[in-house]
Protein backbone atom coordinates (compact mmCIF):
# COMPACT_ATOMS: atom_id res chain seq x y z
CA UNK A 1 0.00 0.00 0.00
CA UNK A 2 1.36 3.41 -0.99
CA UNK A 3 0.43 6.55 0.88
CA UNK A 4 0.79 10.12 -0.34
CA UNK A 5 0.13 12.63 2.41
CA UNK A 6 -0.07 16.39 1.85
CA UNK A 7 -0.21 17.77 5.38
CA UNK A 8 -1.02 21.34 4.46
CA UNK A 9 -4.28 20.30 2.81
CA UNK A 10 -4.98 17.43 5.22
CA UNK A 11 -5.46 15.09 2.28
CA UNK A 12 -4.61 11.40 2.45
CA UNK A 13 -4.54 9.41 -0.80
CA UNK A 14 -4.27 5.65 -0.44
CA UNK A 15 -3.77 3.31 -3.40
CA UNK A 16 -4.47 -0.32 -2.64
CA UNK A 17 -2.20 -2.96 -4.05
CA UNK A 18 -2.97 -6.63 -4.23
CA UNK A 19 -1.53 -9.20 -1.92
CA UNK A 20 0.80 -11.60 -3.70
CA UNK A 21 0.66 -15.31 -2.93
CA UNK A 22 3.05 -17.95 -4.15
CA UNK A 23 1.91 -21.55 -4.23
CA UNK A 24 2.62 -24.28 -6.74
CA UNK A 25 1.98 -28.02 -6.99
CA UNK A 26 5.67 -28.62 -7.64
CA UNK A 27 6.21 -28.09 -3.92
CA UNK A 28 4.57 -31.50 -3.44
CA UNK A 29 7.38 -33.27 -5.33
CA UNK A 30 9.73 -33.38 -2.33
CA UNK A 31 8.24 -36.49 -0.67
CA UNK A 32 9.04 -40.01 0.47
CA UNK A 33 6.99 -43.05 1.46
CA UNK A 34 8.20 -43.04 5.07
CA UNK A 35 6.41 -40.71 7.43
CA UNK A 36 7.92 -37.32 8.17
CA UNK A 37 6.22 -34.38 9.90
CA UNK A 38 7.43 -32.25 6.96
CA UNK A 39 5.43 -33.66 4.05
CA UNK A 40 3.20 -32.42 1.20
CA UNK A 41 0.02 -32.99 3.19
CA UNK A 42 0.96 -29.99 5.35
CA UNK A 43 -0.19 -27.65 2.58
CA UNK A 44 -2.09 -29.70 -0.02
CA UNK A 45 -5.56 -28.94 1.37
CA UNK A 46 -4.51 -25.37 2.13
CA UNK A 47 -3.90 -24.69 -1.54
CA UNK A 48 -7.43 -25.84 -2.41
CA UNK A 49 -8.91 -23.76 0.41
CA UNK A 50 -7.13 -20.62 -0.77
CA UNK A 51 -8.40 -21.00 -4.34
CA UNK A 52 -11.96 -21.50 -3.13
CA UNK A 53 -12.02 -18.90 -0.35
CA UNK A 54 -10.46 -15.82 -1.92
CA UNK A 55 -11.61 -15.94 -5.54
CA UNK A 56 -8.86 -13.83 -7.06
CA UNK A 57 -8.36 -11.26 -4.31
CA UNK A 58 -4.61 -11.63 -4.72
CA UNK A 59 -1.94 -11.96 -7.36
CA UNK A 60 -0.73 -15.54 -7.85
CA UNK A 61 2.92 -16.21 -8.67
CA UNK A 62 4.59 -19.11 -10.39
CA UNK A 63 8.05 -19.89 -9.03
CA UNK A 64 11.30 -19.74 -10.89
CA UNK A 65 14.33 -21.81 -9.97
CA UNK A 66 16.95 -20.03 -7.92
CA UNK A 67 20.17 -19.74 -9.90
CA UNK A 68 23.54 -21.05 -8.81
CA UNK A 69 24.54 -17.45 -8.12
CA UNK A 70 21.50 -17.01 -5.85
CA UNK A 71 22.25 -20.19 -3.92
CA UNK A 72 26.00 -19.69 -3.71
CA UNK A 73 25.47 -16.32 -2.04
CA UNK A 74 24.46 -18.34 1.04
CA UNK A 75 25.58 -21.95 0.67
CA UNK A 76 28.96 -23.53 -0.01
CA UNK A 77 29.59 -25.44 -3.23
CA UNK A 78 30.69 -28.44 -1.14
CA UNK A 79 27.30 -28.55 0.60
CA UNK A 80 25.40 -28.30 -2.69
CA UNK A 81 27.42 -31.20 -4.05
CA UNK A 82 26.53 -33.22 -0.93
CA UNK A 83 22.84 -32.62 -1.56
CA UNK A 84 23.14 -33.77 -5.15
CA UNK A 85 24.99 -36.93 -4.14
CA UNK A 86 22.69 -37.93 -1.27
CA UNK A 87 19.54 -37.20 -3.27
CA UNK A 88 20.15 -40.33 -5.37
CA UNK A 89 20.90 -42.67 -2.43
CA UNK A 90 18.44 -45.46 -1.70
CA UNK A 91 18.23 -44.30 1.90
CA UNK A 92 16.49 -40.87 1.96
CA UNK A 93 18.03 -40.22 5.39
CA UNK A 94 21.60 -40.91 4.34
CA UNK A 95 22.51 -37.25 4.78
CA UNK A 96 20.63 -36.31 7.96
CA UNK A 97 18.35 -38.13 10.39
CA UNK A 98 15.58 -35.51 10.04
CA UNK A 99 16.09 -34.03 6.60
CA UNK A 100 15.25 -36.53 3.89
CA UNK A 101 16.53 -36.21 0.35
CA UNK A 102 15.20 -37.86 -2.81
CA UNK A 103 15.61 -37.28 -6.52
CA UNK A 104 13.24 -34.28 -6.69
CA UNK A 105 14.36 -32.64 -3.46
CA UNK A 106 16.99 -30.27 -4.81
CA UNK A 107 14.86 -29.00 -7.69
CA UNK A 108 11.93 -28.47 -5.31
CA UNK A 109 14.22 -26.54 -2.98
CA UNK A 110 15.41 -24.40 -5.90
CA UNK A 111 11.80 -23.60 -6.76
CA UNK A 112 11.13 -22.74 -3.10
CA UNK A 113 14.02 -20.27 -2.92
CA UNK A 114 13.44 -18.92 -6.42
CA UNK A 115 9.75 -18.47 -5.75
CA UNK A 116 10.59 -16.22 -2.82
CA UNK A 117 12.75 -14.12 -5.12
CA UNK A 118 9.87 -13.82 -7.58
CA UNK A 119 7.62 -12.38 -4.87
CA UNK A 120 10.41 -10.14 -3.58
CA UNK A 121 10.90 -8.68 -7.07
CA UNK A 122 7.20 -7.87 -7.34
CA UNK A 123 7.23 -6.12 -3.97
CA UNK A 124 10.30 -4.09 -4.88
CA UNK A 125 8.85 -3.16 -8.27
CA UNK A 126 5.67 -1.90 -6.62
CA UNK A 127 3.37 -4.44 -8.26
CA UNK A 128 2.16 -5.76 -4.90
CA UNK A 129 2.30 -4.34 -1.40
CA UNK A 130 3.04 -7.50 0.54
CA UNK A 131 3.44 -11.19 -0.18
CA UNK A 132 3.31 -14.68 1.28
CA UNK A 133 5.46 -17.47 -0.18
CA UNK A 134 3.72 -20.74 0.72
CA UNK A 135 6.71 -22.91 -0.06
CA UNK A 136 8.28 -26.13 1.09
CA UNK A 137 10.73 -27.48 2.07
CA UNK A 138 11.30 -24.85 4.78
CA UNK A 139 14.66 -23.15 5.08
CA UNK A 140 15.62 -21.34 8.28
CA UNK A 141 17.65 -24.21 9.78
CA UNK A 142 19.83 -24.62 6.68
CA UNK A 143 23.31 -23.28 7.43
CA UNK A 144 25.82 -22.22 4.77
CA UNK A 145 27.50 -25.62 4.84
CA UNK A 146 24.85 -27.93 6.24
CA UNK A 147 21.15 -28.78 5.94
CA UNK A 148 19.11 -29.90 8.94
CA UNK A 149 15.71 -29.77 10.58
CA UNK A 150 13.76 -30.50 7.35
CA UNK A 151 15.57 -27.57 5.64
CA UNK A 152 17.68 -27.85 2.49
CA UNK A 153 18.19 -24.28 1.22
CA UNK A 154 17.81 -21.21 3.40
CA UNK A 155 14.98 -19.51 1.53
CA UNK A 156 14.87 -16.33 3.59
CA UNK A 157 18.67 -16.00 3.64
CA UNK A 158 18.83 -16.36 -0.12
CA UNK A 159 16.08 -13.75 -0.44
CA UNK A 160 17.88 -11.26 1.78
CA UNK A 161 21.17 -11.72 -0.07
CA UNK A 162 19.36 -11.25 -3.37
CA UNK A 163 17.77 -8.02 -2.16
CA UNK A 164 21.16 -6.75 -1.04
CA UNK A 165 22.71 -7.38 -4.44
CA UNK A 166 19.81 -6.66 -6.80
CA UNK A 167 18.39 -3.61 -5.01
CA UNK A 168 21.39 -2.44 -2.94
CA UNK A 169 19.40 -2.83 0.28
CA UNK A 170 21.43 -2.40 3.45
CA UNK A 171 18.77 -2.43 6.18
CA UNK A 172 16.78 -5.65 6.06
CA UNK A 173 14.83 -6.84 9.09
CA UNK A 174 14.17 -10.57 9.47
CA UNK A 175 11.67 -11.64 12.11
CA UNK A 176 11.54 -15.37 12.85
CA UNK A 177 8.59 -16.48 15.00
CA UNK A 178 8.86 -20.19 14.24
CA UNK A 179 8.89 -22.09 17.53
CA UNK A 180 12.40 -23.34 16.67
CA UNK A 181 15.38 -21.02 16.49
CA UNK A 182 16.45 -20.00 12.98
CA UNK A 183 20.06 -21.05 13.43
CA UNK A 184 20.84 -21.10 9.72
CA UNK A 185 19.60 -17.57 9.09
CA UNK A 186 21.46 -16.33 12.14
CA UNK A 187 24.73 -17.83 10.92
CA UNK A 188 24.40 -16.33 7.44
CA UNK A 189 24.16 -12.77 8.79
CA UNK A 190 25.93 -13.04 12.15
CA UNK A 191 28.72 -10.62 11.20
CA UNK A 192 26.59 -8.17 9.20
CA UNK A 193 24.95 -4.89 10.18
CA UNK A 194 22.93 -4.88 6.96
CA UNK A 195 20.51 -7.53 8.23
CA UNK A 196 18.90 -7.35 11.65
CA UNK A 197 17.78 -10.81 12.76
CA UNK A 198 15.18 -11.15 15.52
CA UNK A 199 14.02 -14.58 16.72
CA UNK A 200 11.35 -15.57 19.22
CA UNK A 201 11.49 -19.30 19.86
CA UNK A 202 10.80 -21.86 22.56
CA UNK A 203 13.73 -22.45 24.86
CA UNK A 204 15.27 -25.92 24.90
CA UNK A 205 14.02 -27.11 21.51
CA UNK A 206 15.97 -28.18 18.42
CA UNK A 207 18.43 -26.89 17.26
CA UNK A 208 19.35 -25.86 20.85
CA UNK A 209 20.77 -22.51 19.77
CA UNK A 210 19.50 -18.95 20.07
CA UNK A 211 20.52 -17.91 23.56
CA UNK A 212 20.23 -14.22 24.50
CA UNK A 213 24.03 -13.95 24.48
CA UNK A 214 24.20 -14.76 20.77
CA UNK A 215 24.25 -11.13 19.64
CA UNK A 216 26.37 -11.11 16.49
CA UNK A 217 30.03 -10.35 15.95
CA UNK A 218 32.27 -7.76 14.33
CA UNK A 219 30.10 -5.39 12.26
CA UNK A 220 27.09 -7.46 13.18
CA UNK A 221 27.47 -7.00 16.93
CA UNK A 222 24.02 -6.13 18.24
CA UNK A 223 22.24 -7.08 15.02
CA UNK A 224 21.17 -10.50 16.27
CA UNK A 225 18.40 -10.50 18.89
CA UNK A 226 17.32 -13.81 20.40
CA UNK A 227 14.35 -14.18 22.71
CA UNK A 228 14.17 -17.79 23.95
CA UNK A 229 10.79 -18.23 25.62
CA UNK A 230 9.44 -20.69 28.13
CA UNK A 231 6.99 -23.44 27.17
CA UNK A 232 3.42 -22.46 28.05
CA UNK A 233 3.94 -18.91 26.82
CA UNK A 234 1.07 -17.88 24.57
CA UNK A 235 -0.67 -14.96 22.92
CA UNK A 236 -0.21 -12.34 25.62
CA UNK A 237 3.52 -12.98 26.16
CA UNK A 238 4.36 -13.13 22.46
CA UNK A 239 2.31 -10.04 21.64
CA UNK A 240 3.91 -8.09 24.47
CA UNK A 241 7.46 -9.02 23.46
CA UNK A 242 6.96 -8.24 19.79
CA UNK A 243 5.18 -5.00 20.63
CA UNK A 244 7.88 -3.98 23.09
CA UNK A 245 10.99 -5.11 21.26
CA UNK A 246 10.15 -5.01 17.59
CA UNK A 247 8.38 -1.67 17.63
CA UNK A 248 11.37 0.00 19.28
CA UNK A 249 13.86 -1.70 17.01
CA UNK A 250 11.91 -0.82 13.86
CA UNK A 251 11.76 2.85 14.87
CA UNK A 252 15.53 2.96 15.37
CA UNK A 253 16.67 0.70 12.49
CA UNK A 254 14.10 1.88 9.90
CA UNK A 255 14.30 -1.24 7.73
CA UNK A 256 13.87 -1.00 3.99
CA UNK A 257 11.88 -4.26 3.96
CA UNK A 258 10.61 -6.72 6.58
CA UNK A 259 11.04 -10.43 5.88
CA UNK A 260 9.25 -12.95 8.10
CA UNK A 261 10.22 -16.56 8.73
CA UNK A 262 6.63 -17.56 9.38
CA UNK A 263 6.54 -20.80 11.34
CA UNK A 264 3.18 -21.90 12.73
CA UNK A 265 4.43 -24.74 14.94
CA UNK A 266 3.97 -22.63 18.07
CA UNK A 267 0.24 -23.21 17.76
CA UNK A 268 -1.29 -24.83 20.84
CA UNK A 269 -2.60 -27.70 18.70
CA UNK A 270 0.81 -28.51 17.20
CA UNK A 271 2.38 -31.17 19.42
CA UNK A 272 5.92 -30.46 18.24
CA UNK A 273 6.20 -27.81 20.97
CA UNK A 274 4.70 -26.69 24.26
CA UNK A 275 3.96 -23.14 23.13
CA UNK A 276 0.31 -22.06 23.35
CA UNK A 277 -0.35 -19.61 20.54
CA UNK A 278 -3.89 -19.40 19.18
CA UNK A 279 -5.02 -19.23 15.57
CA UNK A 280 -6.09 -15.63 16.11
CA UNK A 281 -2.62 -14.61 17.31
CA UNK A 282 -1.18 -15.12 13.84
CA UNK A 283 -3.70 -12.62 12.50
CA UNK A 284 -2.81 -10.20 15.27
CA UNK A 285 0.94 -10.33 14.67
CA UNK A 286 0.35 -9.91 10.94
CA UNK A 287 -1.63 -6.74 11.59
CA UNK A 288 1.18 -5.44 13.81
CA UNK A 289 3.80 -6.22 11.17
CA UNK A 290 1.75 -4.46 8.50
CA UNK A 291 1.70 -1.39 10.72
CA UNK A 292 5.47 -1.51 11.25
CA UNK A 293 6.04 -1.95 7.50
CA UNK A 294 3.72 0.93 6.69
CA UNK A 295 5.54 3.25 9.08
CA UNK A 296 9.09 2.25 8.14
CA UNK A 297 9.42 0.77 4.66
CA UNK A 298 6.50 1.72 2.41
CA UNK A 299 4.55 -1.44 3.29
CA UNK A 300 7.21 -3.83 1.99
CA UNK A 301 6.51 -7.06 3.86
CA UNK A 302 7.21 -10.64 2.80
CA UNK A 303 6.18 -13.77 4.71
CA UNK A 304 7.98 -17.03 3.93
CA UNK A 305 6.55 -20.29 5.27
CA UNK A 306 8.71 -22.27 7.67
CA UNK A 307 7.29 -24.82 10.14
CA UNK A 308 3.84 -25.97 11.19
CA UNK A 309 3.14 -29.70 11.36
CA UNK A 310 -0.52 -30.04 12.30
CA UNK A 311 -2.20 -29.55 8.90
CA UNK A 312 -5.45 -28.31 10.47
CA UNK A 313 -3.96 -25.66 12.75
CA UNK A 314 -1.42 -24.74 10.06
CA UNK A 315 -4.17 -24.09 7.51
CA UNK A 316 -6.31 -22.15 9.99
CA UNK A 317 -3.36 -20.01 11.05
CA UNK A 318 -2.27 -19.25 7.49
CA UNK A 319 -5.84 -18.28 6.60
CA UNK A 320 -5.86 -15.94 9.61
CA UNK A 321 -2.62 -14.45 8.31
CA UNK A 322 -3.94 -13.97 4.78
CA UNK A 323 -7.18 -12.46 6.09
CA UNK A 324 -5.10 -9.95 8.05
CA UNK A 325 -2.97 -9.13 5.01
CA UNK A 326 -6.14 -8.46 2.99
CA UNK A 327 -7.94 -6.48 5.71
CA UNK A 328 -8.32 -2.67 5.57
CA UNK A 329 -5.90 -0.60 7.59
CA UNK A 330 -6.62 -0.51 11.30
CA UNK A 331 -5.42 1.61 14.19
CA UNK A 332 -2.37 0.46 16.12
CA UNK A 333 -2.98 -2.65 18.21
CA UNK A 334 -2.67 -2.10 21.95
CA UNK A 335 -0.23 -4.32 23.82
CA UNK A 336 -1.07 -5.46 27.34
CA UNK A 337 1.68 -5.73 29.92
CA UNK A 338 2.68 -9.20 31.10
CA UNK A 339 5.15 -9.45 33.94
CA UNK A 340 6.62 -12.85 33.20
CA UNK A 341 7.44 -11.81 29.63
CA UNK A 342 8.84 -8.46 30.76
CA UNK A 343 11.23 -10.26 33.15
CA UNK A 344 13.00 -11.76 30.14
CA UNK A 345 14.00 -8.26 29.04
CA UNK A 346 15.34 -7.03 32.38
CA UNK A 347 18.99 -7.91 31.76
CA UNK A 348 18.77 -8.82 28.09
CA UNK A 349 21.90 -7.94 26.06
CA UNK A 350 19.82 -6.18 23.40
CA UNK A 351 19.56 -3.22 25.80
CA UNK A 352 23.24 -2.50 25.13
CA UNK A 353 22.41 -1.70 21.51
CA UNK A 354 18.73 -0.74 21.29
CA UNK A 355 16.32 1.39 23.31
CA UNK A 356 13.15 -0.49 24.20
How is the topology of this model organized?
Elements lengths: L1 E5 L4 E5 L3 E4 L21 H11 L3 E4 L6 H5 L4 H10 L18 H20 L5 E4 L21 H13 L4 E5 L6 H6 L6 E8 L21 E6 L5 H19 L3 E6 L16 H18 L4 E5 L5 H16 L12 H4 L14
Parallel strand pairs: 3-4, 3-5, 5-10, 6-7, 6-9, 7-8, 9-10
Antiparallel strand pairs: 1-2
Query: Which word captures the global form?
Result: globular
**Strand arrangement, largest sheet?**
4-3-5-10-9-6-7-8
When the domains are counted, the total is: 1
Average pLDDT across residues?
94
Number of helices: 10
List its traits.
356 residues, alpha/beta, Arginase, Chain A, eight-stranded parallel beta sheet, two-stranded antiparallel ribbon, 10 helices, 15% strand, disordered N terminus
Structural summary, described in words:
About 35% of the residues lie in helices and about 15% in strands. The chain is an alpha/beta fold and about 350 residues long. The strands form two sheets. It has an eight-stranded parallel sheet with strand order 4-3-5-10-9-6-7-8, with helices on both faces. Strand 6, helix 6 and strand 7 (about 195-200) form a beta-alpha-beta unit. Helix 4 crosses helix 5 (about 155-165) and helix 7 (about 235-255) runs parallel beside helix 8. It starts with a strand and ends in a 14-residue tail after the last helix. About 45% of the residues are buried.
Amino acid sequence: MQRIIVKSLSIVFIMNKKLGLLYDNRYFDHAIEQFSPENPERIRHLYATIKQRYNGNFHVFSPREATSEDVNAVHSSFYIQQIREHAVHLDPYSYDRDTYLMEDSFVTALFAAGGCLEVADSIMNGNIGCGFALVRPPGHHAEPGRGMGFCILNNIGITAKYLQKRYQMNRILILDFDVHHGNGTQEVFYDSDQVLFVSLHQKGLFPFTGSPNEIGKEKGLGYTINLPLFPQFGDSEYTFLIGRVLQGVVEQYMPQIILVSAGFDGHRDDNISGTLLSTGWYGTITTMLRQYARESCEDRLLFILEGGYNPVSLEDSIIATIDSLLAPETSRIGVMYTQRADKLLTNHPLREFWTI
